[in-house]
Structures are given as structure tokens and as C-alpha cells.
Amino acid sequence: MNKEQFERLNALSEKAINDCLTQIELEEFNKLLTSWNQSTEYNLLRCIYPSDPND
Predict the structure, then answer these.
(1) How many whole angstroms separate alpha carbon 9 and alpha carbon 12?
(2) Is 33 within 8 Å of 41 (Cβ atoms)?
(3) Structure confidence at residue 10 (pLDDT)
(4) Per-residue DSSP letters for 1-55?
(5) How far apart are CA 43 and CA 11, in angstroms?
(6) Whole-prediction pTM
(7) How far apart are CA 5 and CA 32, in angstroms?
(8) How far apart are CA 18 and CA 30, in angstroms?
(9) Could you report the per-residue pLDDT of 14-32, keeping only the tens digit for each?
(10) Structural domains in the chain plus CATH codes
(11) Comparing C-alpha atoms, which of 21, 2, 23 is closest to residue 12?
(12) CA–CA separation, 49 vs 20, rounded Å?
């Protein structure tokens, strides 16, 4: 996930809290959230099981 996607996820999160997301924004939010969760899981697993001892 890049910086722009992360910032967009934050903006959509705020709109979700205020219950003013459109259907299209909700779909975008779900895709970005899935991407965020996958990148977080990847990074956590990478720390637990590093492929390179110099990581």
C-alpha cells in the first residue's frame, strides 16, 4: 500500500464514521482495507519468519 492509498483509506474512514459514504466509496474503502490488512499481515509474518537473516 502506498502513501496515497493510505491517505485515501484514512479519508474514507472518516466518512464512514460520519455515515456519509456513497456506495462507490464503500466499495473503494473495502478494497483499500483489504489491501491494508494484507500488507500488515505480510509485514508481521516477515518479522516473525524473515527469509533473510539480514532483514
Answers:
(1) 5
(2) no
(3) 94
(4) --HHHHHHHHHHHHHHHTT---HHHHHHHHHHHHHHHHHHHHHHHHHHS-SSTT-
(5) 23
(6) 0.70
(7) 7
(8) 16
(9) 999 999 999 999 999 999 9
(10) 3-48 (1.10.287)
(11) 21
(12) 41
Tally of residues, the chain: 55
Phi, psi of 34 (to 5 degrees): -60, -45
Grid-cell match 502513501, residue found: 3
Whether residue 29 contacts residue 9, with contact meaning beta carbons closer than 8 Å, is answered with yes
Determine phi and psi for 21, rounding to 5 degrees.
Answer: -85, 140
CB 5 within 8 A of CB 35: yes
